[in-house]
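User: Assemble these into one structure.

Assistant: Restating your components, then the assembled model:
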Amino acid sequence: MKDRVVQLENYIMKNCLWQFQSRTWDRVKQNENILMKTMQLLCGEPVENKTPADRCYWVDAVSMADAFKKRCPWLLDMKKEEIKALMQALKERIDFVTITGSLNKELTDEHY
Amino acid sequence: MPNHEFECSKCIPERKLHAVLKGPGEDLTSALPLGYLSTIPGSISERGCAYCGAKHVIGTPMKDVIHISHGPIGCTYDTWQTKRYISDNDNFQLKYTFATNMKEKNVIFGAEKMLKQNIKEAFKAFPKIKRMTIYQTCASALIGDDINAVAGEVMEEMPDVDIFVCNSPGFKGPSQSGGHHTINIAWMKDKVGQVEPKITSDYVINYVGEYNIQGDQEVMVDYFKRMGIQVLSTFTGNGSYDDLRAMHRAQLNVLECARSAEYICNELRVKYGIPRLDIDGFGFEPLSGSLRKIGLFFGIEDRALKIIEEETARWKPELDWYRERLRGKKICLWPGGSKLWHWAHVIHEEMGVEVVSVYTKFGHQGDMEKGIARCEESALAIDDPNELETIEAMMKLKPDIILTGKRPGEVAKKIRVPYLNIHAYHNGPWKGYEGWVRLARDIYNAIYSPIHQLAYLDISRDEIATDKGFMTQRLASDANLSKEALSSTNMREYTGIYDNIAYLRTKTYPVFERKTAAAV
């Protein structure tokens, strides 16, 4: 599982920008919403995308879900519960790298 | 990730925290260079000032505005015509710059009266221009001239004009970035929401953090128009003052340079609920992904895919031609703030070059997070290096080319390392599919220029062969190519025209049927 999380994490770090907004509270929302929607897409579950904010999270999720399936074909053989566990582990890892373990001192500045 | 200490900076121990070497298997939680701190006395930084960041980077690309600096003539002159932010308004904002030319007597006796006179003279000299931005400088800030009050008086006397005051003197922040921040927040506070725009499409965006350097904005807007998207405003390249006062009516903020403009995107999200989508306009894969995401947002993904297919088919064979010849070449990616992460991964993947170092002149730790995440292992990441450090880095890393701004670039030239100005541009446009090929071509031309064969010879020391001619670019670049690459009938050199922006300005675009009477 750890190796698979690393593969997905490496893709996000190399190719995505959504995880690097400038304040902690925005990173929390981005990580939560985009990774949740990606998980839902990978599991074939319905995804909320009615509000502009939801659609914005959703487009990043669609792009990422497609990339994951293309680069990590083992995903297609996984059961729903396994995908959910994997994505939960991925979220914890991304939260650590970009929020709780981040050395970026500006994250906690209360103004933009 | 170990911190990197430059030999020349051992006498400035604080510098050690501003550079790291990306090691194998390491992540961002092990080390991150400090950033956006006050310049260390004695380090002789190559940063610019906050006035420059506000006026030269963000303010002056607005095309239908008189940009006047209230201060000494040097501030204005040194931030004029050193960046190619062209416009389709006959480059009015590039051709003309304005200054109140404060002198010593103004510093002693004040300059508000002179400022008011200058403002009226400027409007009189250009009667068709009804918008103005006044930039505070260190001199006018220190003496406390109330520029806002003077602007208010003029607007009362001349009701058809509108004036924006940007109070970002040079000392207001550690670098240009301080100026970016100031003008973002000031524009949001003072101007956004004052104009109600005409909505012409069901899909309306602000294109934020794009300054139209040599036409980059016009390349991207071409794609948006082909998708039927209305670009309500561009912050601020080729941008119009009044369009930017209507930013609050867009459905989506498409953000390119997060370093200089994420502030206004964040504020627009909080106040008006407009979401922010960060994109990459450089590189085939990132650009394709970005266009697709914008298309998905509006439910017009098919239009984005059509553009991606057409452009990739047209330009990929040319990118591949340069990729074969640039493979393995070492580059230092040393821009101001955002290109270090826009390009760190894609220039390696799509042009085959090895990025041996990334740096940022005025970036924050967030830029370093993105850049280090995207660059390869063993790259040296440096925050705000000075000239001695860049020389030491170039001597050690031996890059084949530096991609940087004009100040560090001149240093590179002196030690005979080719450089390409990717700040204000040596050429361009470099955005878009064709632009990325143009960049590859320019890197190729720089690395394989026959001049290097002369430049590296020392006639006082070296044996100069008299029985050999110079190698042409092609002889140099093709010397070690595979047979497949040499004999390819698909790959080819760049075949675009010299001025593709002039062509874009003559294009007509499809009209898409509206679903709604007015966009939400």
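The interface with chain B takes residues 13-15, 17-18, 20-23, 26, 52-53, 55-56, 58-60, 62-63, 96-98, 101-106, 112 of chain A (CB under 8 Å).
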